[in-house]
Amino acid sequence: MTIKGPQSALFGRSTFSGAINLITKRGTNDFQNEISGTVAEYGNYEINALSRGPIIADKLFYVGQARYYKLGAQYNNTIDGKGVGQEESYGANGSFEYRASDAFTATLNFGYNEDHDGLAAVVDQDRFSNNCYFNAPRQYYCGEVKRFEAVTLDRAGLKGTEGLKRNSKRLMLQLEYDAGPVIVTSNTGAYWTHTRYGYDSTYQGVSAISPLTIPGLTGISRNPADPARTGSTLRNEISTRHEWSEELRIRTPDANRFRVLGGAFFYQKRRPLIEAHMPGVAGTTVATTYFGTDRVDNFAVFGSAGYSITDAWTITGELRWANDKVGNSNPLGRPAFPFVERKFKSWSPRITTNYKVSDQSMVYATVARGNKPGVINADPRLPVEIQFATEESSWNYEIGTKNTFMDGRVLFNLSAYYIDWKNQQLTTTYGPTPTIPTTINYIVNAGRTHIKGFESELQVVLNDNLTVGATYAMTDAKFVAFNDPEALQLFGNASVAGKQLPNQPKNQATTFAKLQKPLTSDLNGFVRVDVAYNNRKYDQIYNLASTGEQYLMNLRIGIETDKWNLTAFVDNLLDDRTPSTVIRYVDQLNIPAPATGTVASTATLRGFQFPLADKRRFGVTGKYKF
Fold first, then answer.
1. Hey, is 281 helix, strand or coil?
2. Considering only CA atoms, which of 46, 26, 24 is closest in space to residue 35?
3. Residues near 218 by Cβ (< 8 Å), separated by ≥ 6?
4. Residue 247 parent element (H or E)
5. Within 10 Å of residue 518's Cβ, how many Cβ atoms?
6. pLDDT the model gives residue 35
7. CB of 334 within 8 A of CB of 289?
8. How many angstroms from the chain centroid is the CA of residue 398?
9. Could you give the percent of the chain with pLDDT greater than 90?
10. Is pLDDT of 601 > 60?
11. Per-residue buried b or exposed e for 132-154, using 16+ beta carbons within 10 Å of the residue's own CB
12. Which pTM was predicted?
């Protein structure tokens, strides 16, 4: 179940825009087993297995699930001719549910997963494509980014460390006791993950193609501090993240006319990170960057009260107080001040009212304050004054209606909202400087944003065989107050008020049609078509470079019974190559010519980075229950 809008009051931090509430099935005395598999183009294979049932009838139940997934290369690397974008994952998850009595239940969930991915299929559109603002110090590109059929990455320079290697473990214990007047729930969770990620940060293969000279500039050599010479463009990020949390809730039964809930929550995260660099020209290398250990300690108390004024009208109020300590411990990277920390306190209220017009129709309204805690910019090379970005907050207002008509054959939902968003956290760049020859990404607060929009959903069962549906969402998200130094260089005005938020499409729409028809007494056939449209997304706050318009179409044709199904599919039938996002970046390969001398500076002009989209893919999937 997806819950829109800030959910901080009951669901805690990191629910600034909404939450997905997963409610797992409770154990039953009936065994359920199923296996499914997929075979598709580009070496795409997937197999899933699930088993659930009783160990001791009415008392102890189990669930076990395992998955293996593999996807081969869809694009090649121009330097070595080998594929990129491969993905491989496998893992297992399980749970045990023990019902000691009608009043007490204990559930243990656990899981282990591994990911082994190759070099990501990411490109950097170089400065020679730039077509606007040539008088600005770094130039720019206006319009839809270009289409690429391959990437250019220095795989050999990464010496076997390329791609993603990650393993994750999770553990959760839920204890619930129904004392009659109140229900007490304890949720304890722990999560561990270790990640190694090796990549060519130029996305142009600079260290393999031209580490000493500049292409097209005869007699010009790179500055000795140029990252392509020192090896700092070939990076291997290594991190280990540990998280654990404890929550205690006490609530009255949902059937009560007056319902209350109260609780306390504690969360802790530790994440050490280092960035190792490969040897540069003639074995030279820059020192490993120690980002230290990011630290988060969050303590919160929360509560809610709901009252059914009538059988049709309900009002609920929620409130959460949270105290976040965000910091970093880094004696190797910052010997002068090895530990930094800042506290952020917040109140997150939410008021909701629902009114049932009939058994098939209801209207609702919500007012909520969202909060996202401040963050630390942990790179030790950044100056002290930009080490932290403060918390961001918003007031959200939403009204809507949810309806079913004609005995459930027609579903219609409509909502409208307005958001007043302050201190939005956005990524910008620092550098290069005389002591830092490259740019460093960091998070900055971005003034104020107003968002207006609405969402609609319609689904109609036209007859016993045909169902159609559509959704449409309009999001008018614009800055109303934010000044940016590069905007001043581009436009002669630092304000970007009136510009659309980056990587946020203004219009989104989907539609589907499903035709199903009995072929025999126990065999059905079906055809389903899904189409999705996404408006262009801008790369940055200037609204100049964009992804372009995206049109995705998926097709499914299959047969099924109560026990099994077999489906042939085509994903991305139109072979749309629109990238999912675009990021303002730099062109490290083609540094501009120096004014004097034979050594180029480390100055860079703008490039634009984006991932290559998945290609059209044919495949077959099947499922069998036993």
1. helix
2. 46
3. none
4. strand 234-251
5. 11
6. 98
7. no
8. 24
9. 80
10. yes
11. ebeebebbbbeeebeebeebbbb
12. 0.90
Can you give the three-state secondary structure of 104-163, one letter per residue?
A: EEEEEEEEEEEEEECCCCEEEECHHHCCECCCCCCCECCEECCCCCEECCCCHHHCCCCE
Taking the C-alpha atoms of residue 404 and residue 289, their distance in angstroms, rounded to an integer, is 58
d(CA 1, CA 456): 17
> Which parts of 278-379 are beta strand (E)?
289-308, 313-329, 339-358, 361-372, 375-376
User: Three-state DSSP class for 621?
Assistant: strand
| Distance from C-alpha of 171 to C-alpha of 185, rounded to nearest angstrom | 17
* Cα 214 from Cα 228, distance rounded (Å): 11
Q: What residue has token string 């080490």?
A: 387
d(CA 468, CA 409): 11
Cβ 125 vs Cβ 139: under 8 Å: no
Cα→Cα distances 541→136, 144, 426, 606, Å: 16, 15, 9, 15
- Residue that has been written with the tokens 């009136």 in this structure: 498
pLDDT reported for residue 12: 63
Of 16-20, 191-195, 330-334, 358-362, minimum mean pLDDT range: 16-20
Question: Which range is least confidently modeled, 14-23, 78-87, 432-441, 617-626?
Answer: 14-23
* 8 Å CB contact between 439 and 586: yes
| SS3 per residue for 363-421 | EEEEEEEEEECCEECCCCCCCHHHCEECCEEEEEEEEEEEEEECCCCEEEEEEEEEEEE
No. of helices (H) and no. of strands (E), the chain: 4, 36
- Longest Cα–Cα distance of the chain, Å, equals 84
| Tens of pLDDT, residues 458-504 | 999 999 999 999 999 999 999 999 999 899 999 999 999 999 999 99
The Cα 185–Cα 250 span in angstroms is 6
d(CA 548, CA 543): 12
Token pair in block for residue 443: 């998070």
5: left (phi over 0), alpha (psi -120 to 50) or beta: left
Q: Which residue has the tokens 């062109």?
A: 587
Smallest CA-to-CA distance from 88 within 144, 56, 43 is with 43
Tokens of 118: 């190759």
Q: Are 426 and 390 in contact (CB under 8 A)?
A: no
Q: What is the DSSP string of 482-541?
A: -B-HHHHHHHS--B-TTPBPTT--SEEEEEEEEEEEESSSS-EEEEEEEEEEE---BSST
